[in-house]
Amino acid sequence: MSKPRYTIAVTGLNAIDSPGPGMAVIRGLRDAESFDVRIIGLSYENLEPGIYMHDLVDKTYQVPYPSEGQEVLLNRLEYIHRQEQLDFLYPNFDAELFNFIKLEGVLAQKGIRMVLPTVDQFEARHKINLYKYGKEHGILVPRAEMVFSPADIARVIGSFEFPVVVKGKYYDTGIAYNLQQAQQHFHKISAKWGLPILIQAFVHGTEVNVCAIGDGKGTTLGAVPMRKLYITDKGKAWAGITLDDENLLEITQRVIGATHWRGPLELEFMKTTEDAYYLLEINPRFPAWCYLTVGAGQNQIESLVNLAMGKEVQPFDSYEVGKLFIRYSEDMIVNISEFEQISTTGEL
Amino acid sequence: MQKKAYERPVIQRVQTGITSKVGAQYGNRPVTDIDGVPVKQLIERYGSPVFVLSERKIRQNLEAANRAFKTRYPKVQFAWSYKTNYLNAVCRAFHQAGSWAEVVSRFEYEKALKNGVPGPKILFNGPDKTDEDLRLAIQHDSPIHIDHLDELYRLHAIADEVDHKPRVAIRINMDTGVYPMWDRFGFNYENGQAWDALNKIMTMGKLELIGLHTHIGTYMMSASAYHIAATKMADLALGLRNRYGKVVTYIDMGGGFASHNTLKGSYLKGADAVPSMDDYAEAIASALLSAGFNQDELPWLYLETGRALIDDAGFLLGTVISNKRLSDGRKATIMDFGVNILFTSFWYDHKISPAQDSSSYAEDSVLYGPLCMNIDVVREHVTLPPLHAGDQVVVHYVGAYNITQSMQFITLRPAVVMIDHKGTPHLIKQVESLETLERGEVTPDYLNEIGL
Amino acid sequence: MAMRIKKNIALSESGFIFHPSTGDSYSVNPIGLEILNLMKAGQSSEEIKAHMLEHYRVDGDSFEKDFYDFQVMLRTYKLVEDHE
User: Fold this and answer.
1) Mean pLDDT: which of B42-51, B317-326, B360-369 is highest?
2) Which end of chain B, N or C, is less surrounded by CB atoms within 10 Å?
3) Distance between CA A103 and CA C70 in Å, rounded?
4) For residues C37 and C13, is the Cβ–Cβ distance under 8 A?
């Protein structure tokens, strides 16, 4: 039986030391057994390594930054669609997801499918809403308070034990061992990312993560837990190993079951010495290490494409425990003519 | 031989990592007319800069808002927020389309009367109403929205002097999950202040309580906050029904709906990130409908939406004065409009379009206003096609607050034009002159001769 | 008097300029590219101005002002010889 051939666009080609998930997603797509692919890279910047990796990416188009707005993005995607007839699109950046979620209906009409969470799911799992989210769904989340001024910190800090975690709305985290430090972090982080700031209980333990996919009806189509073995100075996993952990799988199924999560997600947990699992974050996309799920026997990346194509997708019921990923970097040699082409025409 | 169109030669360093070109190609479509009237013609006739309002857009916006709410809730009344834009032509366009008036000061109140709005259809808000203001409002039977206890006591005193009961509502503030909370106006819901005030009104019996008012914030990016607010308002209304058998006529949910502007520091374009009118309507209507009102006692829903109804109906047309090169190599463009007439540029990154055909080649620059003041920055960073002195631009989404908050600082305020639904422009406010500026000034006699 | 583009600098048809001794790249719009090509061909500023006025709808003062600014940027980016 001949396999279908899909043209799939993928963002997040920035396979750098704090990598985007795009190249991992592309490798998953290339490993898919149920279909063949032509890969269209979508890049924001002209030095994203994936642009130049022609054995993995067939053609790359630059797309406007999320801050340019949906209309501009849609125009560009329509142009790319005319050239390439896209069947599916995998957005991979947090910052771009909102726009793609909003455009889902329009793109679907044009035949470009995606599997994404809804706006409500996307908003509800946001850092500043997570504590409430956990309470509603019976999942442990470190207690957090929103603060708007250094005086607010003084007011709420009594109900926490030191150290506390001081978190920005989007990025940046600091650990404070006293009120003064917390206020210092407040100033530094709020100057960069605005208000509110979160004061969060510090949870001691080991960080464990799950890469999973949901079908939007409450079923977990796949889930693979992983522990980081080596972390770079930017806090990114450079190596990790799949774990046998029934509790993690059960919590993951509970999250996906309760929220009817649609699409990929990464759950970040802190496992305490008492074996309690605190949910720290929900990332509404594949993590950069998602190729490990393929290596462990769950090509979650392939499953979502089939789900979008209306195929019957069976949930994975197992994966190989003890599979490692070890990231590596290499220097590509690139001619300036290629750099010139992507920089001046926006295509390569 | 036909000569070719000219454009300034531009060279820019290719930013490694960053490419704005592709995005800019689509983002800088020229806007050469407003409702079919060429920008060039408007500037020729009314000068530059000039504010232009589209009456068509105003009416479309109000219609769309009415549709969003009335398809979800049976009793809806909009009241035009005067402070957002109180040019008489604008107010009257709203009134003609069915909007009442919502005012927050004496002169706004008088303006509404002069515009022909019947007293009972003028909602009087705000923390600063003098006894005289209150008497005037009572005389015209306008709903008075009480902001604080002092005002409540003064109203009780005035009620003894007049022959009919003043009609009042109280303003409520509350926690809607959006911070910082707007708790400086009105009575707090959570700590019992609101009930305290309501009990005082009901037991004194000197005032006729007809409604409840709230206004939870401005530029609200979350529709769910309105759901929470409407639920709490409904709870108060039902509490009044249970405790006193009092059925209030209306719940006024105020305004605060966001427009399509992009707030500074916001990563996403405003138009993409803000809730739609339908989202706000759904949040409020669903809360009121499920609150448990008897069908025949369902309160009217009043709305004081300002910004969301007029921001995108307003345009500022202006002209390039000069191009400059800053010491660090950045391009700077000086426009003939500054922050004194475009007050909102302090918190928005206004969308700016060239008003003539231009190439797709865009360059980064700073946009300055014409004031001899360092704060006069219209856009700190904008990507536009090369503009030449004399070229014209259109600034979008400026209909709300700019005209009411503008001032004659260094430059005078420009003319305001409204284009009617047939596409005919009307001058609705003249450009100012030195006379306008000096009206009301008095020079003591001994300064008549300066002897220079 | 002619401002000279450094010899080792290559102009591509797309308006992309690579400066081999600094590693920086630049892009110019089509008019900028035309001017650079005239400079490269050894034309003086006066000749370039005459050429542009002949072919484009622009007056002498406006072009001179823009050309001056363009030359400032070429100098800033060190794309021209220091000594003329």
Assistant:
1) B42-51
2) C
3) 41
4) no
Q: How far is A96 from chain B (nearest CA, A)?
A: 9
Task: Please name the residue of chain A whose CA is at the shortest distance from the CA of residue B268.
Answer: A67
Name the minimum distance, in Å, from the CA of C57 to any CA of chain B.
Answer: 6
- Domain boundary at B276, B295, B311, which? B311
Strand partners, C21: none
Which residue(s) pair with B38 in the sheet? B33
Mean pLDDT for the stretch of residues A132-157: 87
Q: Do A102 and B272 touch (CB under 8 A)?
A: yes
C-alpha torsion sign, points C60, C66, C67, C69: positive
- Answer yes or no: do B32 and B70 share one domain: no
CA atoms within 13 A of residue B148's CA, in its CB half-sphere: 9
Are B85 and B140 contained in the same domain? yes
pLDDT in tens, B356-395: 887 667 788 899 999 988 889 999 888 888 888 999 999 9
Mean pLDDT of A96-112: 93
Angle, helix C60-76 to helix C45-55, in steps of 10 degrees: 130
Domain A143-201 is in which class? alpha beta
Same domain, B200 and B111: yes
Mean pLDDT of chain C: 88
Range A280-308 average pLDDT? 95
Q: Which residue type occupies A223?
A: A
Residue A296 pLDDT > 90? yes
Calculate mean pLDDT across residues B143-169: 95
H-only helix segments in B214-256: 224-244
Q: Which residues of B touch A62 (CB under 8 A)?
A: 19, 22
For the segment B223-242, the average pLDDT, to the nearest whole number, is 95
Residue B159 belongs to a domain with what CATH number?
A: 3.20.20.10
Quick one: residue B185, left, alpha or beta (phi over 0 = left, psi -120 to 50 = alpha)? beta
Q: What are phi and psi of A316, to 5 degrees?
A: -70, 140
Q: In this structure, what are the phi and psi dihedrals at residue B162, rounded to the nearest 5 degrees?
A: -100, 165
**What is the predicted pLDDT for the residue at A135?**
86
CA-angle at B247, arms to B241 and B249, nearest 5°: 145
pLDDT at B16: 65
Q: Are residues B301 and B320 in the same domain?
A: no
User: The domain at A5-114+331-345 falls in which architecture?
Assistant: 3-Layer(aba) Sandwich (3.40)
Domain A121-125+204-326, classified CATH 3.30.470.20, yes or no: yes
In a domain, B370, yes or no: yes
Write the CATH number for B331: 2.40.37.10
Q: What is the mean pLDDT of residues A94-119?
A: 92
In which band, very low, low, confident or very high, does the pLDDT at B24 lie, cut at 50, 70 and 90?
Answer: very low
CA of A56 to nearest chain B CA: how many angstroms apart? 21
Angle between helices B106-114 and B88-96 (to 10 degrees): 60
Domain count, chain B: 2
Taken as a whole, chain A contains a residue count of 348
Query: A39 phi and psi, to 5 degrees?
Result: -100, 125
Mean pLDDT in chain B? 91
Domain span holding position B91 = 56-311
In this structure, the answer to whether residues B284 and B210 fall within a common structural domain is: yes
Give the residue-averaged pLDDT of C22-37: 90
Report the alpha-carbon distance of residue B355 to residue A106 in Å, rounded.
30
- Residue A124: φ, ψ to 5°: -65, -30
pLDDT at C3: 81
pLDDT at position B23, please? Answer: 35
